[in-house]
From TrEMBL:
Protein name from the UniProt record: Nitric oxide reductase activation protein NorQ
One GO MF term: ATP binding
Keywords from the named record: ATP-binding, Nucleotide-binding
Family label: Belongs to the CbbQ/NirQ/NorQ/GpvN family.
The UniProt record lists the keyword Ligase: no
Sequence ranges assigned to domain ATPase dynein-related AAA in this UniProt record: 41-175
Species for this entry: Caenispirillum salinarum AK4
């Protein structure tokens, strides 16, 4: 994405090769740094595409820590995190998983959408989220103690929670928690401009569209328009694609497969943009 954008405003950190761009919306950076300093685990809650993963990458770079990211899914097991024995060159060798590497070497282990993982994953995390900060490896007989610079961060989208996919209260209460929503319109506009180099007035237009859709009542949408989708749309516009095509590809189609819902979104957006 373009780097020749305006200089950062107060409180903003410009993107550099070492520190990914992130615009703070409150005191989240200070809370993250305090949690790391005091060896506390952190839970990020927020809708898809609101910047949770970017925030973690930004903070890892600010703190100069290695980042081990795991995208959780239905088939993710505890062994995927801790490690397993594999055949290599005719020999059986133990290979650390990302969580074990982070505990051995230090750094941040980030589990994205942790509620998507199988239940045995949270059991593995529990000893790391209290004052013990231990990782038992039953297969090798090791008991690893996390170094001071290790930090466990997990995230999930509360909007997707149901009876089968939710964090138990006993797990949630092992973490500090930070609620991350979509930025205020001015801040979201600034993010879109900084990420893509698009003109401010066009970014404002996209943010207006997003907020109108987010406020729609009675529309069957599992998710609202994310900041990520606005960046995608602005990127298409910057590449010279027509507005209707960019909106269709980056906003309407990702939100729904239902023809009537898509038609309603198109009419809403068309009325806004004239």
């Amino acid at each position: 994405m373009p780097h020749d954008v305006a200089a950062p405003r107060a409180g903003e950190t410009a993107a550099t090769p070492d520190v990914p761009y992130y615009l703070p919306t409150g005191t989240e950076r200070a809370l993250f740094e305090t949690a790391h300093k005091n060896r506390l685990p952190l839970l990020l809650k927020g809708p898809t595409g609101c910047g949770k993963t970017r925030f973690v990458a930004h903070m890892a770079a600010r703190l100069g820590l290695p980042l081990h990211t795991v995208s959780c899914h239905d088939d993710l097991t505890a062994a995927d995190l801790t490690g397993r024995y594999l055949l290599k060159g005719g020999e059986t060798v133990w290979v650390d998983g990302p969580l074990t590497r982070a505990v051995r070497e230090g750094g941040i282990c980030y589990l994205d959408e942790v509620v998507e993982a199988r239940k045995d994953v949270t059991v593995v995390l529990h000893p790391l989220t209290d004052d013990r900060r231990l990782l038992p490896l039953e297969r090798t007989g090791e008991l690893l103690e996390a170094p001071d610079n290790f930090m466990l961060v997990v995230s999930y989208n509360p909007g997707y929670q149901n009876v089968l996919k939710s964090l138990k209260p006993s797990t949630r209460q092992r973490f500090l928690a930070l609620d991350m929503g979509y930025p205020a319109p001015e801040q979201e506009t600034q993010v879109v401009v900084s990420e893509t180099g698009i003109e401010t007035d066009r970014a404002q237009m996209l943010v207006m569209v997003a907020n109108r859709i987010r406020g729609l009542q009675g529309v069957d949408l599992e998710e609202a328009v994310s900041t990520r989708l606005l960046v995608y749309c602005a990127t298409l516009l910057q590449a010279g694609r027509p507005l209707n095509e960019a909106v269709q590809a980056a906003i309407i189609e990702p939100l729904s497969d239902e023809a009537d819902v898509k038609q309603g979104l198109f009419e809403t957006i068309d009325a806004l943009l004239g």
